[in-house]
C-alpha cells in the first residue's frame, strides 16, 4: 500500500517550507535508505512558463526549490542538480524560466548545478510495453543521476483536467519533442495514454508537490492562483495524483492519467488502497476549487463504463483555439509553439486555421496574456449543460 503524506504549510516563508518538507519526508519513511552521501540527486521541476513570476502559481515556487536543495545537500550530503525543459520551444525559454523563478540565484547561492534539458545531451528511449509512444528522447541527465525527485505544482489543466506528478515527467523530453507528442496524440484520452507511456519509462524515485498555492480554473497557465496550504510527498506518482486531485474535488479515477497508470500497474490510483498520513483529506479538502471549463466528465466517472467515459472525456475536452486580439501582445509565442502549424501571422495578427487545430492547448500553455480562448464543440457544450443540469458536480 503506497503512502502519501499531507502536511499543512500556510505560505512560502522559508522556515515554514523547510520544516514542512522535512515533516512530509519523515512521514513516508525510508528516504534515508534510498540515498546516501555523495549520491547525485536531480530535482525535476515544473517550469512551464518562461515569463510568469512565482506568485502566478504557474511554476514550482523557488522557496520550495531552495528548501529541497538545502535538505538534500546538508541533511543527506548529496550532489544536487536542478533541471527541466519549459513548455515553450522559443530559443532560451528554459533559460528564462530559471531566471524568472530565480532558480539561477539559488544555484549560485548553494552550488547546485542547473541542467537545462534543452541543452543537455539526449538519449533515445524505446518502450516495448507502450500504448501510444514506442520511442521518444529524454535529457541524458535523468539517466546519469542516482535519484530523481519530481517537484510538480498542483494545477488544473484544460486538456487533461488535472496536472501533477505523472504529467510532470513530460518535461523530461527536451525542446520540440513535446510538440511531437501532441502531434502523435492529439485527442485528450490518447494524450493521457502517451503521458503514461512517458511516465512508465521515466518514473521519479520521489515526488514532493508544491500545493501551497495551486492554480484553479483554466490551468496550467491561464487559471487563477488559489491558496491550498499544503505540501505532499510520496514515492508513488499515481497515488500522489489520486490524493492531490481528490483534495481539490476530482474523482481520481475519472482523471485519465491516473486511471490509465493504475490499470497498467504503474502505481495505485484507488483511494481506499492508499495510506494517507499527516492531515486527513477531509480536513484539508478544497471542494469549491474551480475546475477547467471542460470538466464535465468528472460526474460521468461515477456512472459510466470506461469506454463511454473515454468518449465523454474526449467530447468535452476536445476544443479549438481562438484568439482574443484585445489581449494579444503579438509576441507570437503561440505561433512558434503550435505543433500542427494551425497558427500563423497575417497582417501582424495571429490567425487560427480551425481545420488544422488539434486542440492540444500548446498555445494556451505558453500564452501569458489570456489571449487564447479554447472553444468547445456543440457536443461538448451539450454534455457540459447536462452535467450542470443534473447538479452532480460543480462545473465552471
TrEMBL record:
PROSITE patterns given in the database record: 4FE4S_FER_2
Start and end residues of each 4Fe-4S ferredoxin-type domain: 319-347, 348-377
Pfam families registered for this protein in UniProt: DUF362 (PF04015), Fer4_6 (PF12837)
Keyword list, A-Z: 4Fe-4S, Iron, Iron-sulfur, Metal-binding
Coiled coil: none
PANTHER family: 4FE-4S FERREDOXIN-TYPE DOMAIN-CONTAINING PROTEIN, PHOTOSYSTEM I IRON-SULFUR CENTER-RELATED
Protein name: 4Fe-4S ferredoxin-type domain-containing protein
High-level lineage: Bacteria, Pseudomonadati, Planctomycetota, Candidatus Brocadiia, Candidatus Brocadiales
